[in-house]
Amino acid sequence: MSKSTNNDTVAIVIAAYNASNTIEKAVRSALIQKSVSQVIVVDDASQDNTYEAALLAEDNSGRLLVLKLPKNSGPSAARNLALKNTTAQWFTVLDADDYLMEGRIDKLLSLAGNDYDILADDLWLLEEGDNPENISPMLNIEPTDKVSDLSLETFIAGNLPQKGKSRRELGFLKPIIRKTSLDEAHLQYDEKMRLGEDYDLYVRLLANGAKAGLTSPQGYVAIRRANSLSGCHGHSELMHFYNSIRTHRDLPNLSKEARHLNKLARTNASRKYRWAKMIHAIKHGNIGDFLSCLTTSPDNIVFLFSNLALTLHYRLFKHKKKLDTQKFS
């Protein structure tokens, strides 16, 4: 892939929805990054004063641009709008409720050099309301200045659940991405997706030949919140995520291992989507939607009914325990 001759400008893209309590801190943390030429906030038709709160972070450097969508369109549409307004050689995403430590972007640029189109660092994780000193790395990568190559196969595998192992969730990474790698592949965020849009874009970039690297935490602090949007998705969002993974099997130049891993990812996404749709159908008495969940492989059908049996058993046991408690209280 072609390299930009000027590697020192980065745009930080922040898609924000009802983030008035956190957006100012996020923007300020972006503006203190020395190599950042633009900080582009896109307010996704928030119902609070996110737009005004973002403007409060203005440092008079002329680098902050705050835009607002007329209707709520999702993070992908917000990010695409930001990318249309960037002139930087690199871009990276910052969630509106997270923040950056000073110097993160400079460190990543230095490590990327001319060797990588995508460079991701391990995330620092912090529970909402916890002491900042209690941050911990998501991937447990030891602090180092070394970069490990991140292949398409490794990336897909890093998002798959493995029995007895903690899930790495590489799709949550927030790398710096060389803008030319996106433009040359004619890629953007899939605006149908409100879940897993980062994963989808990374897979497509890697399949197109972008070279990616992974290093230890350089200063992205991700706040884990009980009510985060990424943890509150329904079967519709899961359906679009599943459909995106289905299309990945048609990407060119996939290795045999990548095809196998994509099949596992597809199965995992299919089960999540169909299970969420089945529960929704049961709650709303929709027999047609319930039956449509069963148009899948025998293994997936066994998975769905096993989950259903376990759920019913748990609820009956819980109900019986409650009745017994009331009986003897």
Molecular structure report:
It is a single chain. The chain is an alpha/beta fold. The chain has two domains: 10-231, Spore Coat Polysaccharide Biosynthesis Protein SpsA, Chain A (Alpha-Beta Complex); 235-328, no CATH class. Helices cover 42% and strands 16% of the residues. It has an eight-stranded mixed β-sheet with strand order 3-2-1-4-10-6-11-9, sandwiched between helices. A four-stranded mixed β-sheet has the order 5-12-7-8. A hairpin with an 8-residue loop joins strand 7 (124-127) and strand 8. Helix 9 (256-284) crosses helix 11. The chain is globular and about 60 Å long. The model is unreliable at 1-6 (pLDDT under 50). Pfam families: Glycos_transf_2 (PF00535). This is Glycosyltransferase family 2 protein. Residues 12-120 form the Glycosyltransferase 2-like domain.
What fraction of the residues are assigned to beta strands by DSSP?
15-25%
Straight-line distance between termini: 72 Å
Please report the first level of CATH classification, the CATH class of the largest domain. Alpha Beta
Strand order of the largest sheet: 3-2-1-4-10-6-11-9
Domain Glycosyltransferase 2-like: 12-120
Protein name: Glycosyltransferase family 2 protein
Organism: Hirschia litorea
InterPro entries: Glyco_trans_2-like, Glycosyltransf_2, Nucleotide-diphossugar_trans
